[in-house]
Amino acid sequence: MALRPARAYRHTDLTTLGKTELLEVVRSQPIPEHIAVIMDGNGRWATRRGFPRVAGHREGVKTARAIVRAAEALGLRYLTLYAFSTENWSRPAQEVSTLMKLLERAIRSELPDLMARNTRFRVVGRPNGVPAAVRQGLEHVVRETQHNTGLHILLAFNYGGRDELVDAFRVLARQVQAGELDPDDVSEKHIRQALYTADIPDPDLLIRTSGEMRVSNFLLWQIAYTELWVTPTLWPDFGPADLYRAVAEFQRRTRRFGGV
Ligand code: FPP
Prior knowledge:
The structure is a single chain. The protein is of the alpha/beta class. The protein has helices at residues 19-27, 42-48, 53-74, 93-116, 132-144, 161-177, 188-193, 240-252, and strands spanning 34-38, 78-85, 120-124, 152-159, 205-208, 227-230. The protein has a domain at 32-158 and 203-252: 3-Layer(aba) Sandwich (Undecaprenyl pyrophosphate synthetase), CATH 3.40.1180.10. Strand 3 (120-124), helix 5 and strand 4 (152-159) form a beta-alpha-beta unit. The radius of gyration is 19 Å and the shape is globular. The termini are far apart. Bound molecules: farnesyl diphosphate. Farnesyl diphosphate binds next to helix 2, helix 3, strand 2 and helix 4.
């Protein structure tokens, strides 16, 4: 199908466009630099089909792979995926251990592809408490991809937004205690630099799947002015066209950052 100039789509119902048209539309305008995603709904996807919850997580891994490719096609700089929160430890032990193995294996098996596509992989979250084999597997991929300059994937793993702030305040408290920082000089810049995401721009867009209207302790400092986009689609059913639709809607919004 022949594509029309992107401006011709300005008033179009985005749900009527396919993946290729949507990509064309969003690429014709400035795209966000950083998209963060709360990947929710794996469990419900599986339960509705009569499968065990881990089957949903397996499908979720396939979706993550497709969304990384779609983000690359878009030319995105940073993609943050909320894979395992500090609250997720309270799930049944069997689900937690399967999830750990699944995530670690998925990342490790992606390594040749990450290298081939110049993709950098990083982890944000507390390394303490993660099983050693999983931690070492992730660290290996982080190390191998550290000089890649394409898309940065940030995996939020054993991540909690409040924990991140606690860790940042501890860093600052130590600097004050050592006489390196005057409490009266503490600014947003100091707090930002003490976060796990110190050198990464705040997300422009936060996508949440499966319809919940919550931020669930995700990037609490960083999303102060982030645009939110929630879809009822469950994560395993989320595809590149959904990502592009979210970006197209983002492009239609006016960000005011507290101004008029
Ligand atoms: C959300 O569904 C799923 C998770 C928080 C688990 C981790 C995500 C994946 C396995 C996707 C793949 C990610 C990567 C980066 C390889 P849920 O279990 O909270 O679903 P529910 O709300 O329906 O129970």
